[in-house]
TrEMBL record:
Its cofactor is heme. The keyword Heme applies. GO terms for biological process: L-tryptophan catabolic process to acetyl-CoA; L-tryptophan catabolic process to kynurenine. Heme-dependent dioxygenase that catalyzes the oxidative cleavage of the L-tryptophan (L-Trp) pyrrole ring and converts L-tryptophan to N-formyl-L-kynurenine. Catalyzes the oxidative cleavage of the indole moiety. GO terms for molecular function: heme binding; L-tryptophan 2,3-dioxygenase activity; metal ion binding. Homotetramer. Dimer of dimers. Pathway: Amino-acid degradation; L-tryptophan degradation via kynurenine pathway; L-kynurenine from L-tryptophan: step 1/2. Belongs to the tryptophan 2,3-dioxygenase family. It catalyses: L-tryptophan + O2 = N-formyl-L-kynurenine. It is an enzyme of class 1 (oxidoreductase). Keywords: Dioxygenase, Heme, Iron, Metal-binding, Oxidoreductase, Tryptophan catabolism. This is Tryptophan 2,3-dioxygenase.
Length: 390
């Protein structure tokens, strides 16, 4: 039953007061204006950054709800859909933030120079909410590009540093998704050993590629040798995947963020994404990738805009400006593991169909978590017995 809020006041609600427009629209205070010679473009500069902060607040609101959903020991399938919807909302906001850069780019470098020196030492690096977003996604402190010789929180006011540190110490989206994936033990269910079937599918795909190369009469011996080497190189990428100790070593080196069990679960979901029971999880993982990609695109485009405006000048907060921002583009990604999954996909033709009873049990496992494995097996057995009796 859905609860509907109702207002108890007799006073009519007014649009401007509901949105707090007096405070919002009255918060643009160009520094140049206070000095008696207002730089026209400073108003745009402030308005654009305020809009960013409003949208960062909404992103934090959505991420917090998604993290709360997956922090529970069991996640009903319908809540996976809710989480996916909210991650889609985050991705749409990010797409809008990318567009906002183009509005800021209508300001020329000379227009920016009219008021830039008045901003020292304020800097976009001091955006508390952006740091919170990064931390909520799962960016670790030791993975950050160094900004000066001290930690990134040292550039924030004490109260803001405390907020960022709290986000750093709280469960992240990466952590709760990792735990959720680990709780779905469908890689081995009953007599069906997905991992063994998958390994054979990989080898079958490689054999097929080798045979196709040999049968291609239009390719010369030297090129055939190179193509065979490419197939063998692709096959070698699976050495770590099929060796749990080697994978664990990669996690320890910081090359992987997802656990071995979680990574295998993602592969399973991606390979069988068209199965109805897996469409929700597959959509969620796609949207998490979208969010990571859009944030990377925003960092990249932001660095280009800064390069256009400042060249190689130092940033207002004392950073190396463009060079610092460019370095964060690749280094500050969180969900690279989800992008690497594409390396390990094989065609449907090489995959075994999932047995009906596995799909039935999988529904229970995804709905209730790992503790449901035994219950799922019992339910499947009961269903089969009932069918036999009928």
């Amino acid at each position: 039953m859905r609860f509907v809020h109702s207002r108890k006041s007799d006073k009519p609600l007014y649009y401007g007061s509901y949105l707090g427009l007096d405070r919002v629209l009255g918060s643009v205070h160009p520094v140049s204006r206070s000095l008696g010679k207002e730089a026209h473009d400073e108003h745009l500069f402030i308005s654009t950054h305020q809009a960013y902060e409003i949208w960062f607040q909404q992103i934090i609101h959505e991420l917090r709800s998604v993290i709360d959903i997956f922090a529970f020991p069991t996640v009903p399938a319908k809540l996976v859909i809710v989480a996916a919807d909210r991650m889609e909302r985050v991705s749409k906001i990010q797409a809008l933030l990318l567009q906002q850069l183009s509005i800021l780019e209508t300001m020329s470098p000379m227009g920016f120079l009219e008021f830039r020196d008045l901003l020292f030492p304020a800097s976009g690096f001091q955006s508390t909410q952006f740091r919170v977003v990064e931390n909520m996604l799962g960016l670790k402190s030791d993975s950050r590009i160094r900004y000066g010789k001290t930690g990134y929180c040292s550039f924030l006011a004490d109260k803001d540093a405390a907020i960022v540190k709290e986000a750093e110490d709280s469960p992240t989206l990466l952590e709760v998704l990792n735990m959720w994936l680990e709780r779905t033990p469908f890689v081995e269910l009953g007599d069906f050993d997905f991992w063994a079937h998958y390994r054979e599918a990989v080898n079958a795909h490689a054999r097929m590629d080798h045979a196709s190369i040999d049968a291609n009469e239009s390719v010369g011996p030297a090129n055939k040798l190179k193509l065979h080497e490419d197939v063998d190189s692709w096959l070698a990428t699976f050495d770590q995947l099929f060796d749990e100790e080697a994978y664990a070593a990669a996690v320890k080196r910081g090359e992987r963020r997802l656990s071995y069990a979680a990574f295998k679960a993602v592969i399973f979901i991606e390979l069988y994404a068209e199965e109805p029971i897996l469409q929700g999880p597959a959509r969620l993982l796609k949207l998490v990738r979208d969010v990571d990609e859009l944030l990377t695109l925003w960092r990249h485009n932001h660095s280009l805009m800064v390069h256009r405006m400042l060249g190689a000048k130092m940033g207002t907060g004392g950073s190396s400006g463009f060079h610092y921002l460019k370095a964060t583009t690749g280094k500050h990604r969180v969900f690279s593991d989800l992008f690497d999954i594409a390396t390990y996909l094989v065609p449907d033709a090489n995959l075994p169909p999932l047995p009906h009873d596995i799909m039935h049990r999988l529904g229970y496992v995804l709905e209730l978590g790992s503790d449901a494995s035994a219950a799922a097996a019992s339910a499947a057995a009961a269903a089969e017995a009932a069918s036999a009796d009928a």
